[in-house]
Amino acid sequence: MAQKTVAILGATGVVGTQMLQCLEERDFPVGKLVPLASERSVGKTVTFRGEQVPVQLASSMAFEGVDIVLGAAGDAQAKELMPEAVKRGATCVDNSHAFRLYDEVPLVIPEINAGDIAKNQGIIANPNCATIIGLVPVWPLHQEAHATRLIVSTYQAASGAGMPGLTELEREMACVASGDPVGQTKPFQHQLAVNLIPQIGGFNEVGYTSEEMKMQNEGRKIMHLPELRVNCTCVRVPVMRSHSESITVEFEKPLSPERARQILEVAPGVKVVDDPANSVYPMPLDTSDQDLVYVGRIREDLSAPDGVNSLTFWCCGDQIRKGAATNAVQIAEYLL
Predict the structure, then answer these.
(1) pLDDT, tens digit, for every residue of 199-244?
(2) 97 has catalytic annotation
(3) Catalytic pick among 22, 92, 97, 129
(4) pTM of the model
(5) Which of 32, 98, 213, 245 could cysteine-pair with 75, CB 3.0–4.6 Å?
């Protein structure tokens, strides 16, 4: 397979570092790696295939000769630099929020809508991590019974806030253990250690956060379901890695828990872990550092009105890998 020149924008962050690992693990045909970051990271190196590769300054000129760009930077940098990369002939897979809802930009989970990749005009957007983890198991059930409504509660790990989130939770836990005051809690609004924070992002005029609206807005686009209704509550929890979600799905057609398990057993990207009688169900510790979405606690929705077909399940997935880096590399594999 022809070797590609691959740039990673934001190569020294949590997601960028994971992208490097995924490229290596999946034997992506990288002929030349171009790690890009802000000025404070220039001079550092990243490890790729046993070699130290120097980090370059993220700038327009850095994309000369690049075939594929994997974006792991913030919105502002993505908006500034991704179009510059496209002008220079690169195709970009961007993990920021910047382009996700643009009509001309495909928003892709390969297990669901890989066909949309072919419609790209130079930029393909990676969805939000919680959206990916939730929709990977929802999609095969939708194909069987047609989903009309989702009620979702997410339990999102500290690493969803990047390296600052990880280091802050570690610091807070050390303070709690030693009895010291926690003090400032950035990037979180409140202390996260021994606590839960029911806010991720800012609130809109009707009381939903930006993170909560992503599940509906992105889900409608990915699944080609403009009428999909979603009620989502996103909570930051004191877990290092892997997001968890409780999902109730209403369907047009009947779907039993037994049939749902059969569908999910063979669904791409899913692993059924569902033996509650023996305390076997998905948990963040088990789903970290791998690429499948674990699904369990599959059961009838006892609150559903008569005549409404509804199931509830619990799922967990590594939001740094499948929720970000791996999903982006999977999209890049389709570009080959």
Answers:
(1) 999 999 999 999 999 999 999 999 999 999 999 999 999 999 999 9
(2) no
(3) 129
(4) 0.96
(5) 98
